[in-house]
Amino acid sequence: MNMKRVLAVSKRVFMDLKNDKRSLALIIIAPLFAMTVFGLAFSGELKDVNVIVVNHDLGMDVPTIGEINFADDVVNNLDSEVLIIEYKSNLDSALEDLENGEAWAVIYFPEDYTNNTMASMNPMLDASSSIDLYIDMSNANVAESVIMETNSALLATIEDTGGGIPVTIERIDVYGENAEFMDFFVPGIICFTVYLLTTLLTLMSFIGERVSGTLSRVLATPLTESEIVAGYAITFSLVGTFQAIFLVVVGIAVFDVMIVGNVFLAFLVVALLAIVCQALGILLSAFAEREAQAAQFLPFIVMPGFLLSGVFWPLEAIPAWLRPASFFVPPSYAIEATRSVMLRGWGLDMIWPQVLALIVFAIVLLVLAAISLRRRG
Amino acid sequence: MLAVKTDKLVKCYGKFKAVDDLNLHVEKGEIYGLLGPNGAGKTTAIKVLSGLIKKTSGTAKVLDIEVPNKLVSGNVGYMPQETAAYIGLTVHQNIEFFGKLFGLDKEHIAKREKELLEFIDLTDWRDELVQNLSGGMKHRVSLACALIHEPDILFLDEPTVGVDPKLRIKFWKFFTKMKENGTTVIITTHYMDEARRCDRVGFMRQGKLIAEGVPEVLMKETGTDSLEDAFLKYADIERPPVRPGVK
Ligand SMILES: Nc1ncnc2c1ncn2[C@@H]1O[C@H](COP(=O)(O)OP(=O)(O)O)[C@@H](O)[C@H]1O
Ligand SMILES: [Mg+2]
Questions:
Q1: At what angle do helices B91-101 and A3-19 cross, to 10 degrees?
Q2: B80 and chain A: CB distance < 8 Å anywhere?
Q3: Who contacts B88 (Cβ-Cβ below 8 Å, separation ≥6)?
């Protein structure tokens, strides 16, 4: 691979974008538009959110009624449609799972929970009972639904016992303290727009190259297929990073978005995503014969990104049978990784599985893209 | 060493033989014209020789190297029949890009670009986007891109289509000048009259070479006074290619 030729291609692609006012507008306006419109409009219903219950409640032996355990009642009242409950006996190990992102919340019932609850029923005693709810707030949607579910389970338990128990939930936010929907949304919209625009721009650009004959023409020069692909990759990873920086700045300035992690790590993930997507665009162009056909690819690019990447609603919100499909949607890794970085403050030591997945995608798609450019017949 | 040598060259699209048993010998430093009606297989032959598509069978050698091969691509200039220039780039950006692909440095490109812009008469349009140019102008940009690196061998596929007569004369003068500098020029055209300026021409029909030789000799041989009539004479006679004037 000759670096001078790679850079020549890279500069050529860059000039092409720069000279075309529409591409330029697309790169800047589209993500802004998406951020504003969807950011204000979206929220979703959740399913299958992993939570861990640590029940240390010793219960109470009440004469004539027998053994009672309010914690068990509350757990039974949790909606198993929404929450997938795992039981653990050790609070520390449960919290560790929470820190690792294996669960969204830990619901902890202390030993004296039933005891205190009973006591609080007695107006003579100044007692109150509480459970501890540890929540990963990096996904505001999920967090809110866990809180809601816990609250309604408590209310149901109170109704069952027929008493007005003053229960309070002590909420301890683990990640993303005070995270709001927009905070959760910005990393997703960055990855989504970079995915969409990079794929589309390379797709259109390559259909153009194939149709106009410039592609076969440059392949008749010393330029090789892999040099073309590398040149495109450089330009689009830079453009993707630029978009990410732009959106983060707007997010902070306009929407007061909160970022706790290393934003440069997030940019790196976005650049990687852009490389994956430009290779995808080149690959797709091999299946198009005319420029107008780019539009026919649109649903196949937009829909998976929309539904299966976790951008607008968490992957927990899609049916379980469909979830494995998200493994094949590159932005899903990037979204998870950038969110973890920006909201949880995770480093490379934590997001490496997603980064690795993106690297594997990049290598496979780059090779396939280069092969797809080989002269045929 | 011949500039171009093909032996029983065949190129099929599916079952259709676009180039059929083509034996082409082009000497270094000559202007060779590949003539024939539309669909004769001229473009296909040029595409195989310049390394764009793979042959089906036979041999195709450029500067003694079997093509496609990146070893020769640096010595070859190719101007496709369709106007293949980047319409989203300016004239200057196009020429510069092709210069870089051939490994030329900045000063070299700048010097060549100036000469070429004068030659294609687009000096004033240097910074205009190619998409805003007329068809003929685009075609000239495309030609400049093929010439930037002063190739040893130049494949020009219908370079004079859509070019006005005055400029066409200028083009031919330029090709002659390139020849004097040692460049081999292989040019396809279906304008038979302008092909008189070639050192030698080959008549192609249905993928086959039906006659080959010096224009004057071909006309004399057939008793005609235009290449057009000479072509028709040869096309009438169904027999193996004749090569008057070749020892
Ligand atoms: N990509 C292709 N697929 C199928 N047929 C083709 C293709 N390109 C050219 N042909 C056919 O091959 C024949 C020769 O075409 P071409 O080489 O372009 O002729 P010329 O340049 O002499 O006009 C024509 O009949 C044309 O229809
Ligand atoms: Mg042709």
A1: 160
A2: yes
A3: A15, A16, A19, A20, B129, B130, B131
Query: Is B129 at the interface with chain A, CB within 8 A?
Result: yes
From the CA of A7, how many Å to the nearest CA of chain B?
9
The response to whether residue B88 sits with its C-beta less than 6 Å from ligand 1 reads no
**Structure confidence at residue A43 (pLDDT):** 42
Residue A29 carries which side chain, given as an amino acid letter?
A: I
Torsion of CA B213, B76, B207, B209, to 10 degrees: 10
The pTM of the full predicted model, rounded to 2 decimals, is: 0.79
Report CA(A22)–ligand 2 centroid distance (Å). Answer: 34
- Does residue A168 lie in a domain region? yes
pLDDT in tens, B19-29: 999 999 999 99
Interface touch B90/A19, C-beta < 8 Å: yes
Q: Give the nearest chain A residue to B67 (CA atoms).
A: A220
Cα A376 to ligand 2 centre (Å): 18
Instruction: Tell me how crowded residue A208 is: count the other CB atoms within 10 A of its CB.
Output: 18
* CATH number of the structural domain B2-48+59-186: 3.40.50.300
Q: What single-letter DSSP state applies at residue B242?
A: B
CA A233 – CA A358 distance, rounded (Å): 14
Q: Which of A175, A197, A224 corresponds to the end of one domain?
A: A175
**Are A211 and A78 in a shared domain?**
no
Q: Which domain holds residue A224?
A: 181-376
Among the ranges given (A136-140, A229-233, A373-377, B12-16), the one the predictor scored with the smallest mean pLDDT: A373-377
Note whether A314 and A252 are same-domain residues. yes
Residue A130 counted as domain residue: yes
Q: Tell me the CA–centroid distance for residue B168 and ligand 2, in Å.
A: 18
ipTM, 2 dp: 0.88
User: Which pLDDT value is given to residue A185?
Assistant: 81
Q: Considering only CB atoms, which chain B residues are within 8 Å of A212?
A: 82-87
Record: contact B84-A12, CB cut-off 8 A: no
Asked if residue A10 is part of any domain, the answer here is: no
Average pLDDT, whole number, for chain A?
86
Q: Are residues A158 and A198 in the same domain?
A: no
Contact A19 B103 (CB under 8 A): no
Q: Which helix (H) or strand (E) holds B51?
A: none
Query: Do residue A161 and residue A189 come from a single domain?
Result: no
pLDDT number for residue B240: 56
